[in-house]
């Protein structure tokens, strides 16, 4: 019996040592970087670990279940306060799904969206006091002043009627433009009950320069304060389609599409300039340099992490559970062109390990969500996956 206990202890210690090594993203047994293809731009990183960090591998057994399929062109999957799922469809409706993916209710009669290009109904988030006030907020592309804007509306969910009551628009990312690309947009509440909104810069070269202008809401992270007033938190963003708060620190993190190379993960800080389109680790789609082809400039923030070639990072979420212990406080990224869910291990605001999950699905992952020790992912094909400990 003692020998059996000793052997079990040795195996457990070995498991923990392996996990610790992967969590640290280094050591003699660390894995090679998950990206093996040459980059488009091939620029040098500003610091070690800014790209192609050591690979990692989850050692806790887990299972992946497809719980729904065939949803039409989704953008967001969000866990409701009662643990059910709300899915937004870019065409302009939402669906409440139970925890096993079954359809509970369709939510219609929302404000009209401009469903074209990358526009449509985008993200949704629930008021911190949703259980008592039933308020929800959503972002969408809206026809406005002869063009299109990223707008945020709020209203009271009337689930029985399948609609939202008392709808009002609380923010418009002006100026309006004619383009139908790069709207952003994700929503997240902080612990103070203030709402953060990510806004894209609308792509066109003559417009994207407004990402550097504090008189424009394009290419910004916005905070809508409790009194309803919008405030620019950060600027110099290209197309931020992911936004979440790190549960370990309370700080805001963002994922951002680069051009041809140079997708980014950023730690968002008040008043900071994140550089687009002045600095970039990517190239134009024509393979020309972006601007002067520089990656660093005084007064402009560096991404915590970047990818070259691109993975097309969309929605992000932090895993705040213990069921798969090595995932705690890791950042998960839904990747479109990468066709996987990326797991980033973060220590002291740096990425120290990376793993690619669900690569066998061969699908474009649009969003991820976490709650109650469950990780959810949704694809552009409209499939919902649930990832839990085995």
Describe the 3D structure:
This protein is mainly beta. The protein has a single domain (31-389), classed as 6 Propeller (Neuraminidase), CATH 2.120.10.30. It contains three helices and 24 strands. The longest helix has 23 residues, at 2-24. The chain is globular, with a radius of gyration of 21 Å. The protein starts with a helix and ends with a strand.
Structural features:
390 residues, Neuraminidase, four-stranded antiparallel β-sheet, disordered N terminus
What can be said about this structure in brief?
This protein is mainly beta.
CATH class: Mainly Beta
CATH H-level superfamily: TolB, C-terminal domain
Provide the succession of SSEs.
Answer: HEEEEEEHEEEEEHEEEEEEEEEEEEE
How many helices? The count is 3
End-to-end distance: 28 Å
Count of individual domains: 1
Q: Describe the sheet with the most strands.
A: 4 strands, antiparallel
Helix percentage range:
under 10%
Number of strands: 24
Shape: globular
Unreliably modeled segments: 1-28
Oligomeric description of these chains: single chain
User: Order of strands across the widest beta sheet?
Assistant: 1-24-23-22
State mean pLDDT (0 to 100 scale): 93
What would CATH call the architecture?
6 Propeller
Structural class: mainly beta
- Which band does the percent of strand residues land in? 35-45%
As for the CATH topology, it is: Neuraminidase
Report the C-alpha radius of gyration, rounded: 21 Å
């Amino acid at each position: 019996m003692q020998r059996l206990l000793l052997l079990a202890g040795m195996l457990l210690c070995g498991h923990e040592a392996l996990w610790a090594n992967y969590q640290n993203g280094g050591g003699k047994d660390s894995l090679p970087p998950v990206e093996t293809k040459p980059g488009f731009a091939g620029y040098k990183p500003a610091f070690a670990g800014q790209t192609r960090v050591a690979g990692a591998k989850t050692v806790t057994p887990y299972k992946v279940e497809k719980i729904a399929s065939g949803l039409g062109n989704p953008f967001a999957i969000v866990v409701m306060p009662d643990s059910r799922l709300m899915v937004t469809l870019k065409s302009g409706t939402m669906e409440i799904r139970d925890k096993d993916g079954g359809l509970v209710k369709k939510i219609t009669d929302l404000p009209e969206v401009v469903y074209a290009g990358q526009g449509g109904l985008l993200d949704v988030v629930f008021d911190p006091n949703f259980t008592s006030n039933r308020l929800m907020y959503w972002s969408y592309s809206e026809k406005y002043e002869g063009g299109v804007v990223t707008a945020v509306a709020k209203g009271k969910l009337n689930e029985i009627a399948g609609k939202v009551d008392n709808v009002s628009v609380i923010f418009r990312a002006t100026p309006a433009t004619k383009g139908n690309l790069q709207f952003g947009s994700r929503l997240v509440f902080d612990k103070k009950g203030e709402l953060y909104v990510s806004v894209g810069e609308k792509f066109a070269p003559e417009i994207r320069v407004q990402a550097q202008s504090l008189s424009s809401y394009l290419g910004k992270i916005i905070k809508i304060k409790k009194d309803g007033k919008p405030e620019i938190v950060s600027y110099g963003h290209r197309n931020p389609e992911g936004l979440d708060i790190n549960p370990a620190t309370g700080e805001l993190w963002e994922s951002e599409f680069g051009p041809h190379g140079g997708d980014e993960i950023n730690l968002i800080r008040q008043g900071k300039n994140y550089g687009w389109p002045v600095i970039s680790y990517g190239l134009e789609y024509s393979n020309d340099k972006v601007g002067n082809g520089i990656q660093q400039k005084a007064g402009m923030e560096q991404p915590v992490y970047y990818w070259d070639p691109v993975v097309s990072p969309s929605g992000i979420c932090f895993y705040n559970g213990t069921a798969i212990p090595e995932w705690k406080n890791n950042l998960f990224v839904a990747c479109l062109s990468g066709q996987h869910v990326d797991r980033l291990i973060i220590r002291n605001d740096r990425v120290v390990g990376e793993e690619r999950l669900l690569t066998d699905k061969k699908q474009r992952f649009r969003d991820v969500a976490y709650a109650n020790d469950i990780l959810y992912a949704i694809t552009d094909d409209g499939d919902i996956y649930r990832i839990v400990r085995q």
